[in-house]
Amino acid sequence: MEGTASGHAARVSAYATVGARLSLFSDRQLADAVAAAPGLGSGIGGRSSEMEVEGRHVFVKRVPLTHIELQSEHLRSTANLFELPLFYQYGAGSTGFGAWRELAAHLMTTGWVLKNEYAGFPLLYHWRVLPDCPPAGFADMFGGVDGAVAHWDGSPAVRRRLEAIGRSVFSLVLFLEYVPQTLACWLGERNDAAQRVTSGASAYRWVEDQLLRGTEFMSGHGLVHFDAHFANLLTDGQQVYFADFGLALSREFELSTEEADFLADHLVYDRCYAPGHLLRHHLPDGVRGGSEHGAFLRDWVKGRRPDGVPSDISAIIDRHAQHSIVLDNFHHRFLTQSKRTPFPAGEARRALGCQGWVSAPGGGQTPT
User: Is the pLDDT of residue 361 over 90?
Assistant: First the structure.
């Protein structure tokens, strides 16, 4: 998997080979194979495992399908079927807006990869709706459904969504291209500004470039990931792959006017979030000198900077500190004051514009 003609051809070949084999399994055969696959974990967005098909590793994700989503009039619908509040879109313990949206996002991104428009997404080889048992513990981070509902301002729609997940007896099973590491693990093994990748760039500069390319591509195509932390981003050391589209929102979805406006405001969200996550969680050891992250960034933009910061890291902080502060302040208000805190889209765009990145015609973004 790499951004070359041979790498693209190999991925397309694997897509055809693995997809064809999976499509030949009956539902019973496929369900048995999934049940036998070694588990990798479970969480608020589903359960995952790994299997081998035609000599290739395949990542398997089971996303709960609720009775509402399985009604004939709602099959494959990307509408907001539970009428969830738009603040549920943020990655702060949300189960997402439904399995069909996640499927649609993967179908879109797979199409972009196959057409060689952008390599940075795992291919969706196959998908199937299969019987499953209700997921357990998906709301444990809040102490259960009641705690999760309280976290989301007591929203009745969130309760309906969570209770429906808890009763689900089918899953949307996604069979995805296997990528060996999360970006968090990969970068954690290179927590040294001096380390280089094969291109000769520092590991941090390479990651920054990959984040900018990926977020700009998604924004330019009307897609917002909303949860691009580094456990949801994967890498083989040649490319960063944006994965796990459980919270994704796209202009191709069936959106209300309010949702379309929300999406337009948030086309800068990933572009702020992903580099901001790099600054908050993955700077080399010792760069902050013991300062709290927010204070460190505020001091940085005022010119109060610790000695000894490597030049590559200093340049990355320069490019992303201002918009990271904007997003950090928003997240703090969102989590501590009100879930209805408006996203400061204008302020975020101004911060990005100051650093050479502005909105392009048609809603995309472009470097200046």
Answer: no
Q: Which residues of 216-240 are buried (b: 16+ CB within 10 A; e: fewer)?
A: bbbbbbbbbbbbbbbebbbbeebbb
Last residue of a domain, one of 128, 155, 178: 178
Distance CA 7, CA 11 (A): 6
The CATH number for 327's domain is 1.10.510
Task: Using the Cα atoms of residue 175, residue 178, residue 179 and residue 183 in order, give the sign of their dihedral.
Answer: positive
Q: Under 8 Å CB-to-CB from 309, ≥6 apart: which residues?
A: 287, 317
For residues 26-50, average pLDDT: 94
- Regarding whether 214 and 130 lie in a shared domain, the answer is no
Do 137 and 187 fall within a single domain?
A: no
User: Final residue of a domain: which of 159, 178, 197?
Assistant: 178
What pLDDT, in 10s, does the model give residues 305-350?
999 999 999 999 999 999 999 999 999 999 999 999 999 999 999 9
Parent domain of 238: 181-368
Range 16-37 average pLDDT: 98
Residues 349, 235 within the same domain? yes
Residues 158 and 242 in one domain: no
Total count of domains within the chain: 2
Nearest Cα to Cα of residue 171 among 30, 10, 339:
30
Q: What is the mean pLDDT of residues 215-228?
A: 99
Q: What is the dihedral of CA 307, 310, 315, 318, to 10 degrees?
A: -30
For residue 320 the two structure tokens come to 């992303």
- pLDDT confidence band for 367 (50 / 70 / 90): very low
Question: How much is the pTM?
Answer: 0.93
Identify which of 170, 165, 100 has the alpha carbon closest to the alpha carbon of residue 131: 170
CA 32 to CA 347: how far, in whole Å?
Answer: 51
